[in-house]
Amino acid sequence: MGLIREIANARRYFSATKAAPDITFYSESGIYYQNYKGTIEAILDKSEFKILYITSDLEDPVWDLDNDRIIPFYINKLVPFVFPFINTKSLVMTMADLNQYHVKRSTNPVNHIYMFHAVNSIHLQYNHGAFDHYDTIFCVGQHHIEEIRKTEELYNMPPKELIEVGYSWLEDIVTNYKQKLLNDNKILIAPSWSAGNILESCLDTILEQLLPLHYEIVVRPHPEFIKRQNDRIKEIKQKYNGHPNFFLETESSSSQNILESALLITDWSGIALEFAWGMLKPVIFIDTPKKIHNQDYKKIGIVPIEDQIRNQIGNILKPSYISNIDQEIKKALQNKEKNEEILKELRNRNIFHWGQSSEVGADYIIKYCKEH
User: Fold this and answer.
1) SS3 200
2) What does the pLDDT look like over 161-188, one tens digit per residue?
3) What is the average pLDDT score of the chain?
4) Residues 193 and 160 in one domain
5) Taking a C-beta distance cutoff of 8 angstroms, is the pair 104, 140 a contact?
6) CA distances from 178 to 129, 172, 259 (A)
7) Residues 236/200, Cβ–Cβ less than 8 Å
8) What pLDDT is attached to residue 1?
9) CA of 129: how far to CAs of 39, 171, 293, 323, 372, in Å?
């Protein structure tokens, strides 16, 4: 039944492209709608275009929208068979590694646009060649411009169109944060999913220190960790779910605990930049092994932004000093207000078009579609 439904959706999509041949968005998971939301709304507000929205998630928030100018289609297993034939002017995606694995570029003259869902650099935590097959990149900050251009030069690649856009989800976090009440006792533990991350290496030690105290502890595994390490998730549930101060959050589409928590404990997750720059809240980094998906990252000669600003936006704690984590938390919360101006200055220096990124991205897509 599922495959029959997908076939019907694929046929419906290709039929729709005849009436609305301009813009397609693709979402691997419902969590990425938050990255598209501002740009989609700006396109609908500033133009007459319809948006075709392919999603591989039946829980995607797009299904709840009531707007006849955004048309959703559920295509999951058939994505590798559909994408080579897409024929809209622009295809917007948050999926790295286009053309490197099962999902290929369209064979038609489509502008493949990549929209980042993290502030992180392109050459450390992404695979080599992760963005090589895109035509246009919506860059979050100057670091993306420099890293992509240096990569193109190093590997003798044709230049892509790099658009200075910014990061609309970070702006949404600020807006949503202002509407939430901060819980001074809530601490969020949100690690990456790379080998040796907090959940694999030292979660038990951290919880032994914090659960007896007055804090509410929310553990939020990365979606990829949930997918790949489900046995470990079951262990954590079995061991801690009965504790009154513990909550395991596996619903990644919700940002409530991100907004309400007073402090973040992480390792190499991109959420640190969103937590610090979006809400100006303190971060403690557990110094687990670096998350490296590209072993050749040093070749381009640029220090990744994750390394550059790590000790500027938070405190770094070696695993051997976790027994002191309660004191680090106390110190970080006491210095919160003093550090807010530093975080604002760093944010403004490192992110393009603060407060206007959705409009900038939408303007580019509208202009491109009108000119082609």
Assistant:
1) helix
2) 999 999 999 998 888 887 776 778 899 9
3) 93
4) no
5) no
6) 38, 10, 9
7) no
8) 55
9) 26, 29, 11, 40, 27
Q: How far is CA 182 from CA 65, 287, 315, 319, in A?
A: 29, 27, 21, 28
- Token pair, residue 106, equals 């369209």
Q: Which domain holds residue 311?
A: 172-350
C-alpha 203/C-alpha 201 separation (Å) is 6
| E-only strand ranges, 171-267 | 183-189, 216-219, 246-248, 261-266
DSSP for 308-352, written as a single string:
HTHHHHSEEE-GGGGGGHHHHHHHHHHTHHHHHHHHHHHHHHHSS
CB 216 within 8 A of CB 182: no
CA distance 41 to 359: 9
The predicted-structure confidence for 100-135, as pLDDT tens digits, reads as follows 999 999 999 999 999 999 899 999 989 999 999 999
Using only the alpha carbons of the chain, give its radius of gyration. 21
State residue 223's pLDDT score: 85
Measured CA to CA, the distance from residue 277 to residue 303 in angstroms comes to 20
Q: Same domain, yes or no, for 14 and 41?
A: yes
> Residues 34, 172: contact at Cβ < 8 Å?
yes
CATH code, domain with 144: 3.40.50
The number of folded domains in the chain is 2
Q: What is the pLDDT of residues 188-226, one digit of tens each?
A: 999 998 889 999 999 999 999 999 998 999 999 998 899
